[in-house]
């Protein structure tokens, strides 16, 4: 059977600061500047986007890898019959609010953590990693913006253990990830109340809860589950870095919650401070099975849409 040729337009753009010369010479007004981000306070140095093209478009895994790189998917069905390999764990569909989106699913009793022997966790994620193009990697002293939309399934059950939906993970120059992520957005319970937690971990593995929605009078069942939310993360990768993170209901202007932290450790030197080290984003479902009976026996899902990765540079005042 013949196959149609695969045509994928990779949405990665790198902007260079150039001096454009006009006839008869140049002037300061001729200086080219990259475009601005949505805030108007940063130049966009590079930009990449990963957008679903719907169930009838390019094959889902090929589409993801066309942007993030071959091997950037950690879906259970890619790791043999020890997992639930009879179905695809990332598919695409259409929603009236956001348009096309990616549907991530996980199965409590059938899915594992890749091809590892762990029995206490499972994952279905996509990631930037060492084989991704350099413009997607967060290098030292660079500032990055990440945007995406997500929707937690109406019946998704969480426990007081982790259920990560987003991670920023440091990677040393030999390609090995540092064990603990710098920042996570995780769905869990605190004092028996379900919500979203934003957590930071420093180089000594000290975990700091920056925010939990249960402490903000944000209701899990009506304001998070089944709702499309848009996330903005802007961070500077430095040992004295910065983090801004906001989560806003799609279609609204005011964030559901926001975090702004300066002088925050957002870099891991590892055994050295090589410029080969970098930070990578991960999205999907990575959850603990330590309280397995509290999770749904059947399929759980989280939807994602409109991923954006930008390196930005603050405009000098």
Molecular structure report:
- With 317 residues, this protein is mainly beta.
- It has 2 helices and 16 strands.
- It has helices spanning 60-68, 220-224; strands spanning 11-14, 42-50, 73-74, 90-95, 99-107, 121-127, 143-152, 163-171, 183-190, 193-201, 207-212, 228-236, 241-249, 257-264, 278-288, 299-314.
- Strands 1, 2, 4, 5, 7, 12, 13, 14 and 16 form a 9-stranded antiparallel beta sheet that branches.
- The N and C termini lie far apart (61 Å).
- 38% of the residues are buried.
Query: Care to count the β-strands?
Result: 16
* Morphology call: globular
Distance between the termini: 61 Å
Oligomer: single chain
Radius of gyration (Å): 20 Å
Report the order of strands and helices.
EEHEEEEEEEEEHEEEEE
Q: Which stretches are poorly predicted, pLDDT < 50 over at least 5 residues? A: 1-9, 17-28
SS-derived structural category: mainly beta
What's the arrangement of secondary structure elements?
Elements: E1 11-14, E2 42-50, H1 60-68, E3 73-74, E4 90-95, E5 99-107, E6 121-127, E7 143-152, E8 163-171, E9 183-190, E10 193-201, E11 207-212, H2 220-224, E12 228-236, E13 241-249, E14 257-264, E15 278-288, E16 299-314
